[in-house]
Specification:
Shape: elongated
Oligomer: single chain
Number of domains: 1
Largest sheet: none
Structural class: mainly alpha
Number of strands: 0
Helix content: 40-55%
Distance between the termini: 47 Å
Radius of gyration: 13 Å
């Protein structure tokens, strides 16, 4: 039962990530606060766990 719960959570996160990727930045179908994030910069860090470094 625990494994099934964890699997469901992973699928939910994957669905949210793909939905986020499918939307344009101008009209997201969700708000950043739904992810517990206050601004797009934090949201970017959340979506890109391994961002490229500048310079």
């Amino acid at each position: 039962q625990y494994e099934a719960h964890m699997k469901a959570q992973e699928e939910q996160r994957a669905a949210a990530a793909s939905a986020a990727a499918a939307t344009s930045a101008g009209s997201p179908i969700f708000t950043y606060s739904e992810f517990g994030l206050d601004d797009p910069a934090e949201f970017n860090n959340f979506m890109n766990q391994d961002p490229p470094t500048d310079g």
